[in-house]
Design goal:
The structure is a single chain. With 229 residues, the chain is mainly β. The protein folds into 2 domains: 92 residues, no CATH class; 105 residues, Immunoglobulin-like, CATH 2.60.40. It is 8% helix and 39% strand. The longest helix has 15 residues. The protein is elongated and about 65 Å long.
Length: 229
């Protein structure tokens, strides 16, 4: 039995066509369901022969997490579509999907497992300027492996400070400095508790900051620029 945990925010279930023929023949048919499972699971359900099947996702306490109606063209489950679901389940249950959404995809080949959309890195990019000249380029991003990636670039070898602390500044989780022209660091977020954190980059008596939100309830990470009032 495969397992699944679905983030509830910014998630669109991929339309994977093809389900068992008996799904449309019985009055109430379940597919891939184990209600005695000790882990989360998913199932496909059709109440009547003339209704569209519904895919449902449950947590390990059998509570419905998410459901979506499937298209009328769903007729049979193929090995490829099952494998595509397996890949999706694996990624979700290991928290490899961060601040993302799925793209609708009607191609059922295994190679067409939907792409992941991470936080828009261009929207997060910031610069530190001096007399109108860009002196530090800051480009953070979230990837699909519980990591916050920070890339910095500067023309001169001046000291740059980088820190990650909780929102009220009572605990520092990462503190570093560098005078390299190119700085690249991956911060592992998998063991950090849920909450709001501040990522700050300082140089030339100027700083820019970001707010990192970790929501453990739905395995979601969100990074945004901090707006200074």
């Amino acid at each position: 039995m495969k397992t699944i945990i679905l983030p509830l925010i910014n998630v669109v279930i991929v339309v994977i066509l093809g389900f068992m023929p008996q799904l449309a023949q019985s009055q109430s048919a379940d597919s891939y369901v184990r209600e005695d499972s000790a882990q989360a699971y998913w199932r496909v359900r059709a109440e009547y022969a003339n209704t569209k099947p519904i895919i449902q996702f449950f947590d390990r306490h059998h509570r419905l997490i998410y459901q979506e109606q499937l298209p009328e063209s769903a007729q049979r489950m193929t090995r490829q579509s099952t494998r595509a679901f397996d890949v999706l389940l694996s990624n979700l249950t290991t928290n490899r999907i961060l601040a993302m959404a799925y793209l609708n995809n009607t191609d059922l080949s295994f190679a067409a497992v939907p792409s992941l959309i991470t936080t828009n890195t261009s929207a997060l990019r910031q610069t530190i300027r001096k007399k109108g000249e860009v002196i530090v380029d800051i480009n953070p991003s979230l990837d699909q492996m519980d990591k916050l990636t920070l890339r910095l670039a500067q023309a001169k070898h001046r000291l740059i400070g980088i820190s990650l602390e909780n929102e009220d500044r009572t605990r520092t989780y990462f503190d570093d400095c560098s005078n390299q022209s190119i700085y690249h660091r991956n911060l592992n977020l998998s063991q950090m508790p849920g909450g709001v954190y501040r990522l700050k980059v300082s140089a030339y008596s100027t700083s820019v900051s970001y707010l990192l939100t970790i929501d453990r309830a739905v395995s979601r990470y969100y990074l945004q620029k901090e707006v200074k009032i």
